[in-house]
Design brief:
By secondary structure, the protein is α/β, with parallel strands linked by helices. The chain is built from 20 helices and 24 strands.
Length: 586
Amino acid sequence: MPDSLTPDRPAPSDQQQERKPLRVLLVEDSEDDALLIERQLRRGNYQPTMLRVDSANALDKALLEREWDIVITDHNLPNFDSHQALALVRKDHPDLPVIIVSGSIGEELAVEAMKSGANDYIMKDKLSRLVPAIGRELRDAELRRAHRQAEATIRHMAYHDALTGLVNRREFERRIQKVIDRGGHHALLYLDLDQFKVINDTCGHIAGDALLRALTVDLITHIRDRDTLARLGGDEFGILLENCPLERAQEIAEMVREAIHGFRFSWKQHNFVIGVSIGVVEIDETVTSVEEILSAADMACYAAKDLGRNRVHLYRRDDAELSLRHNEMQWASRISQSIEENRLCLYQHSIVPLDEHSNAHHREFLVRMVGPSGEIILPNAFIPAAERYNLMPGVDRWVIENVFRSLAASLGQRSATAEGAKPESICFINLSGTSLSDDGLHKFIRQLLHRYQLPPEMICFEITETAAITDFRNAMEFITQIKEEGCRFALDDFGTGMSSFSYIKRIPLDFIKIDGGFVKNLVNDPMDCAIVEAITRIAHVGGMSTIAEFVQDEACKTLLRQIGVDFAQGYGIDRPKAVKAGESFT
């Protein structure tokens, strides 16, 4: 039968007050031996709280009910010995130290006990060894616990997202593979939050992180215990619904969509409402790989975005929208490979003055892709995919560096110009709207200007009117930085949004490129003619030059000249030409 826990005795001296508390589970049938052990512990400056047990059932119960610092066990008890005690302790407490204190154990049995998991053995006539042994084993046990905790933390970090605590993509993919191998009918939901970037841009990433954590807690309440919610990266989540018919999966997806749409997030007096686009895909016997199912779910998710956001889209193999998405994903892979393998090339398109007395001759530089067989692929085939998959910053950087390198080589052949004479030719370089969010782009351009020693006034960057208005804050910041470097700036496709006239009062521009939709029918359409004339007049009041795009014939050029447009560009002047190695641009 177990003895009561030894009560803590009053400590009449300062020395006793400094004693270290020690919770001891003593497996011993002799009360006298128990008192000897307690006295030895007190001499060793411990304040023991002891429970004595003398049977396997009592030991098992004590291990379940309380936490212990150390187990001290006799070797031989009636119907119970140290081997059985060790087995009970080690079953659920691998780090709990066990010391055998016995008067009858021989060296051979002691060695066997150590092999079975005992940490030390001490003869009862040598109890002076007990306190040092306990101190050593407590330190070793703490090291083992810390090591196990570190291993557990590393394992958790390897399979879980640090921000939300959810399983990460790696573990999610492993679980998908398990259900594929097991067979049956399951479903996967791919979630992409709508308007999450607005929160990051408005309140910073700390607010965005807080939203993701709060949303995670809410989402967990809307799925079944056997399902897996994972953070796949950024603002993307996945839900694996095991043993779930497709119809029920769609109901769950709609329920999750409604929950997220109803979620309210407040941050420093800012209130946000978000939505989510969800792709749903069935996992059945036709699925062969994790990559296949994730690709299908991703396509369905982005189809939901394209169809208006904050909706659920079911993947079907014959879905035209998903076929388009699949095609774009393939293009995305080809674009990345083309950048890595330097299989992009430059074309140039003339921009000529309409003033016959001007000697200026500008060029716009365009990008093309070189196919596997050497064929030239036009930008309208791959640029949409590059923009959708955020590959345009890489494409833009390739164009900038290659234009700069070629210009430097060209100027090297004309040292007088390179020494500082103001060049009459300006080189126009298109930038995607997504590049405006590339925090390192300004620094990249500044470094290239310095490396290639280019006169910055030779360079004119251009973005579309739509891109400037859509991301006005980043556009203003980037344009201001570029202008401070001495480069010029142009607004492309101007006129597509006539309500944006007020923006050109605030943007420091050098050129306005009039959208070709107003130019190509200029001669026959009085309304187009009036719009071009209005744009030109407003631009000149603001000290900006105008460039008409899509000029197709001499009649159009003549009318543009009469209106007062400064420059013309289009197939009626020339067609884009490949930039050849060593060709002079100026």
